[in-house]
Amino acid sequence: MKTKDMVLTGMLTAVLAVLSIIQIPMPSGVPITLQTFAVALCGYVLGSKRGTISVILYVLIGAVGVPVFAGMTGGFAALVGATGGFLFGFIPMAFLVGLGVRSKHKVLSVIWGVAGLAVCHVFGVIQFSIVTGTGLAASFAMASAPYLIKDVLSVIGAAVVAVAVRKGLAGANLMSSEQAA
Question: How far apart are CA 135 and CA 127, in angstroms?
Fold first, then answer.
C-alpha cells in the first residue's frame, strides 16, 4: 500500500468512527446512526479493497475498547451483543459497495450498495435473533425493517457525496483521475 492509500484509509476509518458515535436510541436496542452512510462512503470513496480495510480497522479499533461504536461504546462485548452482527456486516457491505464503484455506472453502483446493505442486515438480524432469543421474523421486524428506508437513503446519499469527494481527492492529487471517475 502506498502512503497516500494508507492515509486515505485511515481518514475514512476516522470519518466512520466519528459518524458512528452520534446516535438516537430506539426501544429495540438498535440505535439510529450514520454508520451505514459512513460504511457506504468508505466503499464508494476507497473501492472494495481499501474500503473493506478501513471498516476492518474500525471494527478492530472498537473491539480493543476504543469507544468508536454507536453511543461512544467499544470493546469485545459490543461485537457479541445484540447489535454486533451489524458491525460484522459492515465488512462485506463495504466490499460490495466498493465493487459498485468499479462498474462506473451510477445505478449499478447503488444496486451494489443496496446489496451490501442487505448482507449487513442479514448479519445483524441473525445475531440479534441469537442474542435476544427472538425468532428471525420478529428480529427482522425489530432490528431491520424500521431502518431500511433510512439505510437505503444513506447508501444513495453516500454514492452522491462520494462523487464529489473522489473528484476533490483527484484534484488534490491524492487519487488518480481514473480512480476518481
Answer: 11
**pTM greater than 0.85 (yes/no):** yes
List pLDDT tens digits, range 82-100.
999 999 999 999 999 999 9
How many domains are contained in the chain?
A: 1
Q: What CA–CA distance (Å, rounded) separates 111 from 114? A: 5
Which residues, in sequence order, are CB contacts of 15 under 8 Å at separation 6+?
Answer: 38, 41, 42
d(CA 77, CA 111) in angstroms, rounded, equals 33
Q: What is the largest CA-CA distance in the chain?
A: 51
144: left (phi over 0), alpha (psi -120 to 50) or beta: alpha
Q: Nearest 5°: phi and psi at 25?
A: -65, 145
Chain-centre distance of CA 131, in angstroms?
A: 22
The CATH number for 139's domain is 1.10.1760.20
Name the region of 90 (left: φ>0; alpha: ψ -120 to 50; beta: rest): alpha
